[in-house]
Amino acid sequence: MALAAAHFAVADTPPLVSARRAVGLRLVGVTALLAAAAITVLAGLAVFHSMLAAGQYRLSELEAEIAAERERLIDLRYELQTLHGPAEIELMGVGALGLVSATDPIDVRIEPRHIAAVDPPQRSIHEGGDWLSIKTLLTDASTAHDRRS
Question: Which of 30, 81, 139, 141 could form a disulfide with 110 if both were Cys (CB 3.0 to 4.6 A apart)?
């Protein structure tokens, strides 16, 4: 009988109110679904934005590191130029190697017979040319100069 009473209760309501209620429930359901989708999209955008901000922060850290390393490279190049400078080489030669300055300048004269005895090098000395022949030439010239003195 309860079933019949419920059937009559629904039957007693006009069909227009029942249709409005169904449309209203569908509207609420669609609105809730759209709200959930919007919240999901906004949460995804928030996560994406935080990842993007973290990447930007890391990029700025790397740029600061690069700038610091460039400054260090400039300092190291300056130090290298200083160490290869004539004053530093002289200081190293006198202090560490025990070299002494020459009392007077020596002119090295190479005689034409020495030049003719050595074939002209095909490559320069810096490219791996014949350094021994030039060294021999200079040694012979200096010993010939010493014999005349």
Answer: 141
